[in-house]
């Protein structure tokens, strides 16, 4: 009996990692429209339900299986740059929490020439589940 359980566990271990791999990181794209700001909207994390974990995860790709990069508290402002293809996630750019800068200091509050490109500025970036974000401006 123990042998059969061990064989089943090993077989499961060989199958699960292939299916449970985290998605490849997907950079947040900015710019691409010379008429709009590189990240056209300002948003904030909404108040969260009581009894939850008290934060919204920032992910490396638009998926709950993607690596967690950061945890944002309610009220945290961020620049909203692009929607995921399914419309459930938003690519965001935001400053370090204690850097003294606001989202407008991330270099994405004005138009950028040329095609959309991965964000590579001084601030942080990643993907947030869109249901936890409200648009403040833009």
Distance N to C terminus: 63 Å
Structural class: alpha+beta
Rg result: 19 Å
Extended strand count? 9
Helix run count = 1
Report on the structure:
This protein is α+β, with helices and mostly antiparallel strands and 138 residues long. The protein has one domain: SH3 Domains (SH3 type barrels). The chain contains one helix and nine strands; from the N terminus they run αβββββββββ. It has a five-stranded antiparallel sheet with strand order 8-6-5-2-9, with no helix packed on it. The protein has a two-stranded antiparallel ribbon with strand order 1-7. A hairpin with an 8-residue loop joins strand 3 and strand 4 (68-72). The protein starts with a helix and ends with a strand. Residues 1-19 have low confidence and may be disordered.
């Amino acid at each position: 009996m123990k042998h059969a359980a061990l064989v089943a566990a090993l077989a499961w271990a060989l199958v699960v990692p292939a299916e449970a791999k985290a998605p490849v990181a997907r950079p947040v794209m900015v710019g691409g429209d010379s008429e709009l700001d590189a990240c056209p909207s300002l948003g904030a994390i909404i108040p969260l339900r009581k009894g939850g974990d008290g934060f919204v995860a920032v992910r490396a790709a638009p998926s709950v299986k993607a690596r967690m990069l950061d945890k944002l508290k309610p009220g945290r402002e961020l620049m909203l740059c692009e929607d995921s293809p399914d419309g459930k996630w938003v690519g965001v750019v935001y400053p370090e929490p204690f850097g003294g800068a606001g989202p407008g200091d991330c270099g994405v509050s004005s138009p950028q020439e040329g095609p959309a490109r991965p964000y590579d500025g001084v601030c942080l970036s990643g993907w947030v589940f869109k249901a936890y974000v409200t648009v403040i401006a833009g």
